[in-house]
Automatic annotation (TrEMBL):
This is Diguanylate cyclase AdrA. The chain crosses the membrane at residues 109-131, 143-166, 172-192, 204-227, 233-253, 265-288, 294-312. Keywords: Membrane, Transmembrane, Transmembrane helix. Residues 334-401 form the GGDEF domain. InterPro entries: GGDEF_dom, Nucleotide_cyclase, Rev_trsase/Diguanyl_cyclase. The keyword RNA-binding does not apply. The keyword Transferase does not apply.
Length: 416
């Protein structure tokens, strides 16, 4: 829905197509872009309330609409960079709104595809969780996967170049993307916590505490001391890297101890996530390439696909086991030659009768309407009225016993 609103906002411009003229779009790259016609400044890149680093600026394009003919005036494009540094810029694109929109859409096609995949898997996880709970099989790890995918989708949407260019609440969206990025490992740490043995579950819990502490600390530094999130981003990256490595080691030790296929599958999934994360960090910090997130997004999707497949197989086996167990239980209560209840069924029924009789020993009459009870209390006193209630309760108790004994005798006769 957010992406749809962004796309609508891109297309919406007042006036007719001829009044709008051509649209020029320029890559901001890592540089302070300025576009001028003669002495008139048409565009100058400025950070909004949320400061961006080089990698974030590399996703942004500047869309400039020329509403009038420029004549002989010179259209100048200026990029600011360090002395003797190499300049990497894309050629400007010129065309109508629909053409420019299509080009931006194609440029973000991979990220949009990843977002749709994550959202779809998240919905499927919720549906499977509800279905398995209906089948009396509670698997909380499906909810862990769903929450992780929701946080990943939020990070991808608000960190995308399209939102950075056209989002109406750009600074707020960027803040949400940072917090989603800082907290999205928490559901998967809970996933690991629900997978490993109880004796080592404190290890994921420690990392959950560290991630929450990191989010609180960075928010404290930003709101009180105005220290930008981009200056403390390395802390989050360090926590993510060391956290994934520690989970891989934990799962590896757990697999050596238990030799369970489920733990082995989880270990492979974290291995895929670790490889994609290392590649993304190298692209981000060493090469300063802005499309590092595409590698990480693809790694996340593979990671979730592997875990999701393992969970589906486990739940499918559990459902099959429960169905077979129920079939065997019913078969054990019937005579296969006559399809009638056998002695085991009769014994279970007798046990139920005995349990019911034990419960009836302490019967209390809570709601019994006795005719003329108020009259008895008024004439003979409350003691006589209470004794009447007690006698009535005992009569009901003895009647219930006789009914149960009669049912037991009938059942005994039918099974001789």
């Amino acid at each position: 829905m957010t992406l749809l609103l962004i796309f609508v906002r891109i297309l919406y411009q007042p006036g007719t197509e001829s009044e709008r003229g051509e649209l020029y779009t320029f890559s901001n790259g890592w540089y302070q872009l300025e576009v001028c016609i003669g002495d008139r400044l048409l565009y100058q890149y400025k950070d909004n309330r949320f400061e961006k680093n080089r990698q974030m600026k590399g996703k942004i394009w500047a869309d400039i609409s020329l509403l009038e003919k420029i004549g002989q005036e010179v259209l100048s494009i200026s990029y600011e960079t360090k002395k003797n540094a190499r300049l990497y810029v894309y050629a400007p694109m010129i065309g109508e709104f629909c053409f420019i929109f299509r080009q931006h859409l194609l440029g973000s096609f991979f990220s949009i595809l990843m977002i749709l995949g994550m959202t779809g898997l998240g919905l499927v996880s919720v549906i499977v969780f509800l279905y398995t709970r209906h089948r009396q099989i509670v698997e909380k790890r499906f909810l862990n996967v769903a929450l992780f995918l929701i946080l990943c989708s939020l990070w991808c949407i608000f960190d995308s170049g399209i939102y950075q260019m056209y989002g109406s609440q750009n600074a707020a969206g960027t803040l949400i993307s940072f917090y989603a990025f800082m907290t999205m490992p928490v559901p998967m740490l809970l996933f690991v916590q629900n997978t490993v043995s109880e004796s080592v579950r404190w290890i994921p819990q420690v990392w959950i505490f560290l991630l929450y502490a990191n989010a609180v600390l960075q928010g404290f530094l930003y709101f009180l001391f105005r220290i930008p999130f981009i200056d403390t981003l390395f802390i989050t990256h360090l926590l993510l890297f060391t956290g994934v490595v520690s989970m891989i080691l934990l799962l590896w030790k757990e697999y050596r101890k238990t030799q369970e296929k489920e733990v082995n599958l989880c270990l492979k999934a974290f291995g895929v996530l670790g490889i994609s994360g290392v590649i993304a960090l190298v692209l981000y910090w060493v090469l300063s390439i802005y499309w590092y997130e595409s590698i990480f997004q693809f790694g996340i999707l593979l990671y979730i696909a592997v875990l999701f497949w393992g969970l589906l197989c486990k739940v499918s086996n559990n459902i099959q086991f429960c169905l077979e167990q129920e079939v065997y239980r019913r078969m054990s209560l019937e005579d296969r030659m006559t399809d009638m209840k056998n002695r085991k069924s009769f014994e279970m029924y007798i046990e139920e009768i005995q349990e019911g009789a034990i419960l009836l020993e302490n019967v209390l009459l809570l709601f019994v309407k006795i005719a003329e009870r108020k009259k008895i209390n008024d004439i003979s006193g409350r003691q006589m009225g209470d004794e009447t209630v007690i006698r009535t309760a005992r009569s009901i108790q003895s009647a219930e016993r006789s009914v149960l004994e009669q049912q037991a005798d009938d059942m005994l006769c039918s099974n001789k």
